[in-house]
Amino acid sequence: MNDLVHDLGRGLAGTALYQAVLAQDSGRWDRAHTTARTLAGQPAAVHPVGASLYRGAPAVAYVLHAAGHPAYRSALDHLDNILATLVRTRPEDFKSSETVVTL
Fold first, then answer.
1. Helices (H), 1-72
2. What three-state secondary structure class fits 45?
3. Regarding beta strands 100-101 and 44-45, do their DSSP bridges make them parallel or antiparallel, or are they unpaired?
4. How far apart are CA 96 and CA 36, in angstroms?
5. Which of 38, 86, 91 has the alpha carbon at shortest distance from 63?
6. Residue whose C-alpha is closest to residue 41's, from 86, 75, 77, 84
7. Which of 3, 48, 81, 85 could connect to 91 by a Cys-Cys bridge, CB 3.0–4.6 Å?
8. What single string gives the DSSP state of each residue in 53-86?
9. List of residues 6+ apart from 6 with CB closer than 8 A
10. Is pTM beyond 0.85 here?
11. Which residues are bridge partners to 84 per DSSP?
12. d(CA 26, CA 22)
């Protein structure tokens, strides 16, 4: 899976984080919300091979948490449950080489 959309360094996740930081300062969230919706609308990797703090569902969770906007609470709750399972699961227990989540 090529998960550049959810990549903090090269993808939309990094753009969403940047826009959220700007919105926190200016109070203008329109652009940040649009980018966050686009980011959350694409399936994100949750398999240990493709997911890390910088990519996949953990990166999306980081962006939404750092944004700190109440509109993202539902998505964060969903991601928290998924990521808790990811953390508790050993890599060899995953059956598929690609596991994704859609918010």
1. 12-26, 30-40, 56-67
2. strand
3. antiparallel
4. 27
5. 38
6. 75
7. 48
8. TTBHHHHHHHHHHHHT-GGGHHHHHHHHHHHHHH
9. 12, 13, 39, 42, 44, 45, 55, 56, 57, 59, 60
10. no
11. none
12. 6
Structure tokens at 4: 């550049």
Q: In 3-state terms, what secondary structure has residue 100?
A: strand
Q: Are 25 and 68 in contact (CB under 8 A)?
A: no
Q: Which two tokens stand for residue 9?
A: 């360094």
**Which residue is associated with the tokens 């890599």?**
91
Average pLDDT of every residue of the chain? 86
Distance, CA of 5 to CA of 64 (rounded, Å) = 15
- Give the separation between CA 96 and CA 73, rounded to whole angstroms: 29
In the chain (103 residues long), the average pLDDT of successive 10-residue segments reads: 79 95 96 93 83 90 94 93 82 60 66
Contact 101, 44 (CB under 8 A): yes
Angstrom CA distances, 96 to 85, 89, 103, stand at 15, 13, 20
